[in-house]
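Give me the fold.
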Amino acid sequence: MHLSALDARQYRSLRAIRMELGGVNVFVGANGVGKSNLYRALQLVQAAVRGRFAREIAVEGGMRQALWAGSRRTHEPARIVFSVELADDQTGVDFIYRIEAGLRPAAAAAGFAFEPQIKAEEFSVRVGARSTLMMKRQGAGIMLRGERGRMTPFEEAVLVSETAISLLAHEGTAPEIASFCRFVDQWRFFHGFRTDADSPLRRPCLAVTSPLLDEDGANLAAVFATLSVTRGDTVDLDRAVADALGGARLVIPEPDVDASFGLSLPEFEKRVFTARELSDGQLRFLALAGALLSYRQPPLIALNEPESSLHPDMLEPLADLIARAADRSQVWVVTHSERLADAVRQRCGLRPLRVIRQDGATWIEGMRVTGTHPDDDDGE
């Protein structure tokens, strides 16, 4: 299963944009064009599945800050709309989820003034050209398709800030929704890693088998130890570290109560530098390596500006990591770096998507309104 399309409307700089997506998706562009809003839209879909949509919007400053600030058509409601499509290549089944959120009506008593109110949600299953609505939410009421094919009311109402999809995620009565939610919940988003003196990357962590890297990188040492001890194979990791860090060697001690790691540098062969001693760039590259080479890969890995703090010579090795991860995961990369975008293009045979501002809104250069690009017709 993979994410095949994303539609986002009236969210920050995203006026109305739809994108059809591939196995590796690279978005490159200047500061201020809205690249990170595309990344954030995906995060908010996951937040809806996890029941944290309202909280995540509140963290951004509430609905007034999150809503599209440009002009709207007459009578067009002020609503953020996200829609995603997941395709299962083995079964030919598509899952489609859509959520709409708006402000609390002036006369309403329920809810807080600037928290998002979920106005509508839909979940459909599509086979070929035929689409079947499985769940529809309007206000507080939820309708579910039953065994006999009829839409019937769900027994529990939702609060105005709750998502129906999160309420139904573990319900045995909606297995398609449960499958969709399990898949989306496994996505991983890496928006930079702290490298200050108190960063969790610089500290040992509990020696617990860790097949996936936490989004803050706090279990990085355990991820490395899992590759070393459980898989017994760090060939790809060792090659990436040597290529990016001038022949350096990653040192992974046998874990005890804690797991840790260090670097052995060619010019100081008798000295192992601990994580606390590494430069910001060295540490950030190691964290990216942990994210992209972990024992078990998530179905989607999203990287936002992964080139930050990296020396330019680390970008080609990073592109190698991205290409390697793409064998097992769908990858989404947002970057300022033309060099990184071109390196990924060479390794993965894709065309980076250039993000621009068009009439004040975020857009993909050359993209049709359907979400496709003319180059796609040629199979490029």
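The chain has a mean pLDDT of 92.
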